[in-house]
């Protein structure tokens, strides 16, 4: 049980890093046995990055672009803090931080 907790902790850490620094590649394979890695990966799926959602490259996410991620689309009005019908990098980061905190709370409960 302790090893699984340690593996999940490492996975959460690397998962968070992949959101914050999407251009870098992270791998837990050298430190995690394959079975535990698969179990940890099934715990959460990677969400799209800002640049993946920003299809037209204007450094803003429109309502149409937000439809690629259901959670962002459903919460678009609250994420768009300045109510300009676009989500900028700062607003997106705030939303991701909130999602990460919720995921960690759910993880700790289980």
TrEMBL record:
Q: InterPro entries of this UniProt entry?
A: EF-hand-dom_pair (IPR011992)
The entry's protein name is: Uncharacterized protein
Species assigned in the record: Candidatus Nitrosacidococcus tergens
